[in-house]
Every structure is written in structure tokens, then in C-alpha cells.
User: Fold this.
Amino acid sequence: MLAAVMWGAYAAPASALDLSPANYFKLTYEPVTFDKTEITAGETFHAVFKGKASCTKTLPFSPSQATIELRIVASHDAGGDLLTLNESYVISIDPFPGKAGETFDINQTIPLIMPANAAPGEYTVTAQFIEAKVKLLFIWQGITGAFPKEYSMGTVKVIDPEASAPPVETPPTPAPEPLPASEPTSPATPNPEPAATPQPAPEQPASASSWWVVLLLVIIIGAAIAGITLLVRRRK
Assistant:
């Protein structure tokens, strides 16, 4: 039954039934942004691809999904070989808008690798449409002709890592900070040392001769007193 329906649809005149999906939708894009605009050869970076798939009129058979396969390349602005940044990247639109006015937002982050042999300079990055197709009643139908062959994504710059590295500056040796001025201090007054108390000289023991002298004087004085007393008594 399904085969009969499909055969009848394709056998009908184009004016009576147009089944070309390219006539029922359009794809619009926003400017592509890169997470890095200055890269080195061999470095990985990313492109953010945003767009919108819109259904312009209702399809006789609603497609279930669509895919768009891209190849991302870069060309040196000063001339040179075309470099491939991503050989194949597929954007899937699922579910695909099948009724007039329906839209599907596309927001894809595409990884890119700048080849190691890339020369320094400005590069224009371009998306090449390899294949676009939609799925109608379990059958994939190509719609590559509905897209332009190429889409400019913007420019990036390949830099020489050695030339771009800033020179290493030796930090200047900081000058020693001056010591804070100290208040003048009066010279320390030495504490007077306590005067040594002279020790009393030890008493010299009286010699034996001194005792004899004293004793002799006592005897003489006593004798004199006795003589005077006797003389006085005789005169009386």
C-alpha cells in the first residue's frame, strides 16, 4: 500500500504535487564565532555554528529528520594550499519542521584543528556543503542543491608561538627600605658601684713589754704617793 502511495505521488505531475523538500523550507545562518581567533599550528579550536531551519509551507509528507554534512577548510589570505580543519561534520535536524511556520534552531559547536604545517598569517575559514538530505517515509532524499556550495565562517590568525611569546623581564631588585629614624638616646648613666666598707684592722695584741711598762709606772706612782704621805705625817 505504501509503495502504491509513493508511486502515485512521484508519478503525478509536478504542478499537481511538488515533493521537492527544497521548495518547502529554508535555512538561515547567524555569523559564526570562534572561541579563539589567534591560534598556533597544530592547535585545536572551535566554531559555534548557529542557524534556523524554517518550513515555508506544509509538506504533503512530513519529513522526520534531516542531516547536513559539512567540510571545514581554511585558506591563507596571502595564497597557498587549502587546509582542512574538519573533514566531515554532520548537523542533524530532528525533528524536522514539516508544517508552515515551524522552525528548528541549530546550535552546534564544531571542533577544528589547524594543521601542524600551517604557515603564520591570516586565514579565511569556509564551510563546504558536502551533502544535505531529508528523510521522507523512511526514504532519504537528497537536497544538496538547495544549499550554496560554500559558506564563509570568518577569519583566524595563525601565530608563531616563539614570536608571540612576550620577553621574559627580570623584575628589578627592590632597593632596601631605609631603616626608621630612631630617637636619640641619652648615654646610659653607669650605676655607682657601692663603696667598699673598709674592714677594721685587727687589734694588735699588746706585747708583753707594754704590760711591764704599765706595771712599773703603777709601782712608781704608788711609791711616790706613799712617800709623800709618810712625809706629811712626820711633819705633824
Notes: Residues 216 and 222 are 10 Å apart (CA to CA). The longest strand covers residues 121-136.
